Amino acid sequence: MADKANLDGRVAIITGGSGGIGAALARAFAAHGMRVVIADVAADEAARLAAELGAERALALPTDVADPESCVASVARAVERFGTIHVLVNNAGLGLGAIRRDHFTHGVRIEDITPEAWRRMVAVNLGGAFLMARAAVPIFRAQRWGRIINVTTSFFTMLRPGCAPYGPAKAGLEAWSAGLAGELKESGITVNVVVPGGPTDTPMVPAESGLDRSLLIRPERMAPPMLYLCSDAGGAVSGRRFVAGEWDPALSDAEAAARSGAPIGWPELAQNPIWPGGKPAA
Predict the structure, then answer these.
(1) Which of 23, 101, 183, 240 is the most exposed place for a label (fewest CB within 10 A)?
(2) Residue in 29, 82, 130, 166 annotated catalytic
(3) CA dihedral defined by 89, 54, 21, 135, rounded to 10 degrees?
(4) What average pLDDT score do residues 96-125 get?
């Protein structure tokens, strides 16, 4: 587990922070001495979690990550309250249950997806991470220290029939994460991806899924790799994807990261573009 001493006092914004994975992260971060900003459209649930964690430790902010002004305002209020921010976890997501709750047993068809449902899911699951990062990066650049952690999904879900628009939006987030990690190289800002690795015991897996909930990944499994990335040791790690379900807490953080990590996205497919004059500059 990450060294608690060098996490104490660090400030993290967690989008979608009021329930499921977000709430598990908020509790784990706070237990390690971090300050947490619970940014969520579910304002009442965010307020309850912040009250549970305590006013010294947590701040609830009603935030719609699909709204640029809401994102800018939430980052500004977090800085006003805690002095700065160090970590942005882009966890907010809209699941396929918003289209059909039985999607695990009957895949979503293109005819099921209204244009508005497509736009909203892409706006939240892909656009929200961009908008939050765009608001946070100037602060990270100025202090030459920042962590961006994006929650995508398994490659299986990205490509699986019946998982649109959720899978394609998360695939876009995965690809953008790789590019942003390269863009911010040597800025003091890291960009990484953490995924559960499979169906997780959160409201995004509805009762209609037919899955045995005792076999689902616990949302708390997402915390150890993220705490590592937030620590001083995580400062040398960027452009990586970690599967939380494969993170072994019995190992040292370095060993667990090596076993559960890989480069973001599909870098092996990007090595030989047909490019004028050879290959483009990195």
Answers:
(1) 183
(2) 166
(3) -20
(4) 95
pTM: 0.95
Please state, in angstroms and rounded to a whole number, the distance separating the CA atoms of residues 209 and 211.
5
Task: Identify the residue whose tokens are 């979690």.
Answer: 49
Share of the chain above pLDDT 70, in %: 98
What's residue 203's pLDDT? 83
Q: Which run of H or of E encompasses 139?
A: helix 128-143
d(CA 71, CA 174): 20
Gap between the Cα atoms of 173 and 151, Å rounded: 8
Residue 243 neighbours by CB under 8 Å, 6+ apart: 195, 196, 197, 260, 261
Among residues 188, 146, 151, which one has the least CA distance to residue 12?
146
Is 6:232 a contact under the CB 8 Å cutoff? yes
Assign 270 to helix, strand or coil.
Answer: helix
Please name the residues in contact with 270: beta carbons below 8 A apart, sequence gap of 6 or more. Answer: none
